[in-house]
Amino acid sequence: MKDRISIVVMVDAVGALSERTLHNGNLSLVDDSAAGSQHQGTPDLVTAVVPGQVVQWTPIHVDVQTPVEIHAIEFLSGAPVPPPADETVPPYPVEPSAVPVPWTGADATASNGHDNHDLLVWEGVVPYDMTPGVPYRYRLSLKLHDGPNSVLHIDSPALLRV
Amino acid sequence: MAQQHGIIVLFDVENALRTRSLDGNTYWFDNMKFLGSSGVGTEQLETIVPGTYFLDGSQATEQVLNWLPAALGSIPPTVPRNYLAEQARAEDRRTLEELASLSAEGGVGETEVKQLQRRVGKRARKAESGRGLTPAKLLDVTGKATSSTEAYNYPAPVITDITGEAVTEKIIYPAQYGSPDMIYDGWYWAATVDTSRPGVYAYTVHVQLHELVERNDELVWESVDLTCESSLKIISDPKRNGFTGAGLGVLPLPPVPAAG
User: Fold this and answer.
1) CA proximity to A11, closest of A147, A145, A138, A160
2) I need a labelling partner for B245 at 20 to 30 A (CA). Which of B37, B87, B110, B185 fits?
3) Cβ pair A137, A131 in contact under 8 A
4) Residue B244 lies in a domain
């Protein structure tokens, strides 16, 4: 078993921003898992993982001067998310099919007051209580430069415990 | 992700040659405004260089600076380099064709000769000590032959060195590189940055402009060396885990994954 799995996120930032989508060939995911990943090179990558492995996501921009960073990685939940302790009823109806796990979000603020997502390292350990054989889809949000239209996401990639 | 910084230095060549100074004749523009560069588009650009380090103190990402010189009133750098040579050749070809048709018709008027003389244009040599510029017909920005000192097209400014506080303090390591990118004559200046010592550091760009002067009844391109200054603001912050905000942890998987 490999200790680490790298998932490389290749992005055509100019294509993604002008088409407002990470599909249409503007994003490609590739990993180096030896356990039988599927759909390599597409936004639908299913990465085969084993508990205890460290998974790391790295963005690479095809145009070297376009800023591309990972904005967030949120695993999608199939069950209603339990409301926080101080709230008995969710403030809005929760769509049970794809709800991101509540995520506090690491602070990306740099010392000069600007957000710099280059500061964030996106890696984590595959937990032992992960159910085998079921894909855990996640929302991969990318930040391309700055501004109101800078964050784009896909919900299609997944981790799969083999 | 390591970020490539582009820094355009736009020169008002004509004014700089007249005043023999780049003060007030440069405009600086970089792609880092969203991370905190200030004075973008002016002479007082301060380029932000946001460094990162791992918890053991080692530098985590490499920042690369690229300088892109450009000139006001010149042919845009995106036009192919052989544009002027092609245009000069086309002008010569047209002149020869007209000359041939003139002799065929037999009569040569004074106006036709004047027109042809203008087409032949003037040629400028490089100075004995000069470098880089080959003798060429003087053309304006539209590629037409000209003999007017007002209309001709200045050769692109050439960066010859980068010095100053940022270099002597070993904050940046500038060098000139060969490049497959023909836009900048196949050469460009770039530097890597040591982001471990935050602060504001000035640097000096040495530039060679070219001036057309008449010497011994000949037009000669002579080099004029000038300098201009800008600065870098280096900051450095620790890397942190995107999921936990601190160190490595378990992936935040839901109890039940989404269907599909």
Assistant:
1) A145
2) B37
3) no
4) no
